[in-house]
Amino acid sequence: METQTDKITGTILGKVPMIVFAAVSIAIFVFSVQVLPKQGVDHLVLYKAGETLLSGSDPYSMELKFYTPAWSLAFLAPMSLLPIWIARVFWAAASLLVWVVFLVKVLRMKYLDATIFLLNPFFLYGMILGSYDWLVILGLMLPAWIGSWFVMLKPQIGLGWMVWFLNKNFKKAVYTYAPPIVLLGLLVLFGLYRPVLLGEMWWNWSLGLLGIPFGLAMVWTSFKGEDPTIALAASPFLSPYVAVQSWAVALLLFKDNRPALLGAVLFSWVIVFIRINLV
Q1: What's residue 6's pLDDT?
Q2: Would the pTM of this model clear 0.85, i.e. be above it?
Q3: HSE toward the beta carbon, residue 10, CA cutoff 13 A
Q4: Angle (deg, nearest 10), helices 84-101 and 121-129
Q5: Distance from C-alpha of 49 to C-alpha of 189, rounded to nearest angstrom
Q6: In 3-state terms, what secondary structure has residue 241?
Q7: How far is it, in rounded angstroms, from Cα 119 to Cα 142?
Q8: CA distances from 77 to 33, 47, 140, 154, 160 (A)
Q9: Which of 49, 119, 209, 267 is most buried, judged by most C-beta within 10 A?
């Protein structure tokens, strides 16, 4: 017969994964805030872009290269009104919160699995850089008509998701993604936006043509199982350019398979160390 002590013990033990997840999340946030002043290159570029716009100058003419589509300045400019240290804290908190909500509430990953995911090198590096990958993830959680603008900030993360959406509801997908795509095309056409060229991407971690068969297979699998997460995970495989931190979404392929997820995270660390030593 179960005693009251057994019940209490069981309740406490049942909350251990959640406590560990919370502790790891807080540790990542604190660590990110500590290193952003020295390592947060991405966030610095975004902050300076907003600052440059408010000063009446062209963000795309900065010495720090700014490649993000122009509509991102709608929220980058207000952020640049904050002291940069406050902006860094806000950015790190928002980034982590969006990912946590996406993993636990949207994908319904168990706390232990979500903890394993957060410890992958790609996600951690994105936090250190102050990357804006989290805005794409936020876009996936917003209503499609507004979320599409966030997803189009970095198509190399959302490409697979867009393809899945087209297959699921072609007409709605076209109406949803046509406005940001058309606007982006017009900005390029009139010289108001210059996308980064492949030759300039010394940071490119794309698999190139080698990744396409894997990406297409994953997208096809997502069609068969009606699982957009698999299509999302396929995005880096399909893109001609991918920053290292954007490979984090590929690990979502294993969100329901803990041993595979753990293996993928460990393998990711091996790949990162090998790549660093070869550069």
Answers
A1: 46
A2: yes
A3: 6
A4: 150
A5: 21
A6: coil
A7: 26
A8: 21, 8, 23, 19, 30
A9: 49
Neighbouring residues of 212: CB distance < 8 A, sequence distance ≥ 6: 237, 238
**Would you list the DSSP string of 18-38?**
HHHHHHHHHHHHHHHHHHHHH
Report the chain (279 residues): mean pLDDT per 10 consecutive residues. Answer: 54 78 96 89 94 92 86 93 94 97 96 97 95 96 94 91 91 92 89 70 83 95 90 94 93 96 97 76
Alpha-carbon distance of 63 to 118, in angstroms, equals 33
How open is the CA angle 245-170-73, to the nearest 5 degrees?
A: 45
Q: Rounded distance, CA 154 to CA 134, Å?
A: 10
Q: Which residue has the tokens 């329901």?
A: 256
Nearest of 165, 184, 189 to residue 175 by alpha carbon: 165
